[in-house]
Amino acid sequence: MRIEDLLRRNAIGRPDETALICEERTMTWRELDEAANRLGNALRQLGYRPQERVAVVLSNCHHIPVAYFGLWKCNLVNVAISTKLTGPEIRRILVHSGASAVICEDPVAAEAAAGVETVRHVFSVDGGVPGPHRCPS
To answer: What is the pLDDT of residues 40-90, one digit of tens each?
Structure first.
């Protein structure tokens, strides 16, 4: 059984129960599954293929499980990057990992991704990152 199957099972079996709490934000199992599906479907529509690497540069909040489950549902590889790193450190990881997308909330990560040859898209989870793409979570 894959971990994203557990999410789907909970979304079907207890859809309205709380799945997570992050400060004032709560999500039910259904909401978490639907948000992960939106992200996964958006990535597929943009042409992301199984085993491509996607960097996730997020602080500890509800966006992390949405991003992880969305990536797992597409069989994409998560490259977890700490938000405490500097721009050059993030850039080094992006280059070394071959990440083809970045999901972030901070302009530092978006700036670090600029000019990295393999990065096709930078997604913002809260609109705090300048650019045309907003993460569909």
So the answer is: 999 999 999 999 999 999 998 889 999 999 999 999 999 999 999 999 999
Q: Which residues contact 94 (CB under 8 A, 6 or more apart)?
A: 55, 79, 81, 102, 112, 113, 116, 118, 119
Report the predicted TM-score, pTM, of the whole model to 2 decimal places: 0.88
The class that CATH gives domain 3-124 is alpha beta
Half-sphere exposure of 20 toward its Cβ, with a 13 Å CA cutoff? 17
What are the extents of the domains in the chain? Answer: 3-124
DSSP bridge partners of 121: 101
